[in-house]
Every structure is written in C-alpha cells, then in structure tokens.
Amino acid sequence: MPLKFRTAGIAVATLSLGVGGLAGGANAAAQLLAHRAVYDLSLGKSGDGASAPVSARGRIVYEFTGSPCEGWVTNFRQITELQLAEGEGRISDMRSSTFEEGDGSAFQFKTDTLLNGKLVETVDGNARKSNDGALSIALSKPAPAKSDISPGAMFPTAQILRIVEAAKAGDKTAEIRIFDGSDTGQKVFDTMTIIGKPREAESPETAAVKADALKGVTRWPVTVSYFDPGKQDGSPNYSLGFDLYENGVSSALRIDYGTYVLDGKLAKFETLPQKGCDK
After folding, report:
1. Structural domain span for residue 258
2. 226 or 278: whose pLDDT is higher?
3. Who contacts 184 (Cβ-Cβ below 8 Å, separation ≥6)?
4. What integer pLDDT is reported at residue 50 of this predicted model?
5. What number of helices (H) and strands (E) belong to the chain?
6. Is pLDDT of 10 > 90?
7. Quick check: 123 and 185 in contact, CB under 8 A?
8. Are 173 and 192 a contacting pair, CB within 8 Å?
9. Which residues contact 118 (CB under 8 A, 6 or more apart)?
10. Which residue pairs from 262-265 have beta carbons closer than 8 angstroms and sit at least 24 positions apart in sequence?
11. Is 14 among the domain residues?
C-alpha cells in the first residue's frame, strides 16, 4: 500500500510504467487485491526536545478498489493524537481520495487536512501524462494553479506494482520518482525503496493470519524513503516501512518522521468486491 502524511500515505502503498506502460504489466496489475485495512497507531520511538511527542495514538483506514480496466480508487484517512513534551495535545485528521487511470495516463486527487477539528487545508486537482511521460498538473484548491513536470514520475498504484515487480525479481532496491498529489499538490518526490528477503515466518499480526486472502501470499519487508528532488544524499522527509504482500496489501507499518516513529498494527482486514477485465 499501495501510504502520505506530511501527515504519510500508504502508497502502499504505493513502477516505471508511463502512458500505456501497463500493457506489459496488466497481469501484475490484475492481481492487486481490492480491500479495506484498518491500522491502529502507537508511538514506536520519540526523540528529545519540546517538539517530540511523549505519547501518540491513532488509526488509519485504507480502502483500495478497482482494476486495470476501470482504474484504481483509493480512500485513505489517518487520525493521529499527539501529546508533546510541552503544551497541549493536538489531533490531526487527514482524508484523501484518489483515482488513477488503469493505463497510468491520469490521476485525480483531493486531500482535506484538519487540526483539532478545524479544516486547515484542502488540496484538489488532477494530473495527466503526455505521450512523452511529462506531467501536466492542474489545481482547483487551495488556489487555481497549473504546472508541468518533466517525464519520469509515476502515480501511486504504478509505484506499488513496480516495487512488487522488483521484489519478485530479487532486486534489493528500487529508485522511483513519485507524484501522489500530496504536500502542495504540485510536488514530485524521489524515493528509495529497500527490499528485504521474503518473510518465512508467519505474520505476528492476528488480522493478517486470519485473512484467507493473505494465506500463502509472499510478502517482503520494504522501506520507502521520500526525498525532495535531487536531495537523496541527505535525510529523507520521512520513511515508511511495511510488509508488502504480492497482492498489494500492507501490514506491520512503521512511519518514521525523523523526530518520532509511529507503529501501525493491522487491526482489521476485509476483501472488497472486484470486477475482472472483459477479454
């Protein structure tokens, strides 16, 4: 999951396909599982200083549906309650909805961010790829704006597919430029993905063990680090670790913001209806 929270998403979510690029990866795309997953968040690690939380709790609800023919729909919500070392606690609530064309040609996105119950930002727009893979981005909120990005970036579902393909091929790393509509809605991130060996032991998460759709499905430990373009020699903006199943499901989340880390345990899991492509 294919996960952004600047408050971080699961791009779990979240390879280099480009316009029409799914022609070679349609079989892989068809294997992505429509599902709803709920993750309970807790504080995994915290640093020193007034800005570091002393406690944290929250929840992520992630819903992924669609097919290579219909396109892919992702609905994501993360609520996090942080208590800082100094001052009052704060509750952030991020709600994101996206639609990605099955051939990777277009992407629609909308994100609402609330802080302590008050809407502080809405980002709403779309991105389209030209024949050479360049992106044209149009925003309606927070203010009308247009921008163009050079070829090479991909959308979140394509990112998930690329990571799965790399893992199945035995690759240990994957460098991917990603546009997911996060941050200002006009920004591309460079990502570095580290892929471990397939997990042999049973998942420690009860919800994953009980899910019939995950039984016998290969999974890999994955860490995706997000960087500002051209700055991979420094610290990432944040990193997202998780176990990635071959069908695109994620479990055992670990979200590293630098000053603190949130752990996400898969608490609930269910498959959702999914149509196949007509031949």
Report:
1. 21-271
2. 226
3. 123
4. 64
5. 3, 15
6. no
7. yes
8. yes
9. none
10. 262/41, 262/42, 262/43, 262/44, 262/56, 262/58, 262/80, 263/41, 263/42, 263/43, 263/44, 264/39, 264/40, 264/41, 264/60, 265/39, 265/40, 265/42, 265/205
11. no
42 lies in some domain: yes
Count: domains in the chain: 1
In tens, the pLDDT along 180-209 reads 998 888 889 999 999 999 999 999 999 999
Q: What's the rounded Cα separation, in Å, for the pair 201 and 161? A: 24
Per the DSSP assignment, residues forming a β-bridge with 90 are 82
Kindly give the residue spans of alpha helices, DSSP state H, lying in the chain. 26-30, 156-168, 206-210
* Residue 91 CB neighbour total at 10 angstroms: 13
Nearest Cα residue to 93 out of 41, 168, 145, 53: 41
d(CA 238, CA 191): 10
Question: What's this model's pTM, rounded to 2 decimal places?
Answer: 0.87
Question: 100-137 burial by CB neighbour count: b if 16+ within 10 A, else e?
Answer: bbbbbbbbbbbbbbbeeeeeeeebbbbbebeeebebeb
Report the residue count for the chain.
279
Running DSSP on this structure, what letter comes out for residue 210?
H
Residue 279's pLDDT is 58
Dig out the tokens for 35 from the structure: 């599902």
Q: Is residue 244 part of a domain?
A: yes
Is residue 1 assigned to a domain? no
Strands 153-154 and 173-178: parallel
CB contact at 8 A, 123 and 141: yes
On the CB side of 270, CA atoms within 13 Å amount to: 5
